[in-house]
Write a structure and sequence with these properties.
Blueprint: H1 4-15, H2 21-26, H3 36-60, H4 68-80, H5 90-106, H6 114-158, H7 163-176, H8 180-191, H9 196-209, H10 216-228, H11 232-245, H12 250-262, H13 266-278, H14 286-301
Length: 305
Amino acid sequence: MSFLYPQWQIDFFTNHSTINETFFLVAGESFLAFNEFMQMIIEIGLLGFLLVIFVNLFLLSLRGEKLYPYKLTILAILISSISTYTFHVNLIIYVYLSSLLFLVNSVEIKTLKLKAKSFYNKILNAFLILTYIVLVFTVFMECRNIAKWLELEKSSEISAKNESLFKEFENLHTKLNYNSKFLLAYGTFLINTNENEKIKKGIKLIEESQKKYISFQSLDMLSLAYLKIENYKKSIFYTQKLKHLVPSKFGTRLRLIKLLKAAQFHCEAVKEAKYLLSMPVKIPSIEVDEIKRHTEDILKEYNDI
């Protein structure tokens, strides 16, 4: 969902030129729709969603006093899914699936003999125990790697040009190359070295992270990184996405105006400048006033104010 929801928001503000002021001001950096059922419909389609609901309803309809704890656990998770992100938490997913498996285990299979049922139960229990062990080991190893990564991030804030830090980041990359947030952190570190080859590698890493994780920081870094290597077209592309992700930010729009001006897209620069001056202000500040004055100066250069 950390990819889908930000992209939906970007698409919404890209495709709607006239926006309700409340939507415009309230829209911020969000990663979740806070409704798992809506996400399921989008990701697996209506038929897939109905199948999931059918399986849950069937298992919840089973009778037996010993089943109540599992049924109540599933119900609590499903009800919470209406307004939160239960299926984005690994532990909750494990509890939910375990409860479902226990209910499945209680289904009477008439074709099985008593010995076969006992064997079936043992297999299921062994599977749950093995899954738990693998989960605990995986989480332990990931926590170790993440702790090392956070330690490196603190060091990289002090010195972005430390070669030993680069080697340690590269070593961690082999273990956390699936983690989009790590790719963003490593890419940011490389971009801050201000060395062309490392900037290009940093861009590649952050663009890879975009497949699963779109954030204000990732778009911001790509916008700045492409500007550093003087690729105005790409810098403008990511700044526009940034503008649509959080439309009420004046600083982002001023950066876009400057980029358009530098790339000699004068009509677009004037259009963006006029829009900025007409924007509603979410929180009045000296910084916003300064941005507006700067924008007015740019328009004066175009003799358009």
